[in-house]
Amino acid sequence: MSFESDFKFERFEEYFGDIKQVKKLIDNCGVCGSKLILSHLSDYKNLFVQETARCPECGSNDRKMIHVLN
After folding, report:
1. CA distance readout (Å), 36 to 1, 3, 41, 49, 50
2. How far is Cα 16 from Cα 55, in angstroms, rounded to an integer?
3. CA-CA to 61 of 20 to 30 Å: which in 8, 18, 50, 55?
4. pTM score, two decimals?
5. Nearest CA-CA partner of 64 in 9, 13, 27, 14
6. Phi, psi (deg, nearest 5) at residue 36
7. pLDDT for residue 5
């Protein structure tokens, strides 16, 4: 699989602050601040979920994350 070069593994250390701040980091675009559209692709055999975030306002497509399920 070639997903390692495009996607990065989620690290919980990058989330900081109170609940509102963490929700803002996850849900909003880092470029323009609008709500992101999140797409998920599950791979239960290898126990991870690929997440791709896209901004409908500015078109930013900069966040690709792998969430480990185990």
Report:
1. 26, 21, 16, 17, 15
2. 22
3. 18
4. 0.69
5. 9
6. -90, 155
7. 54
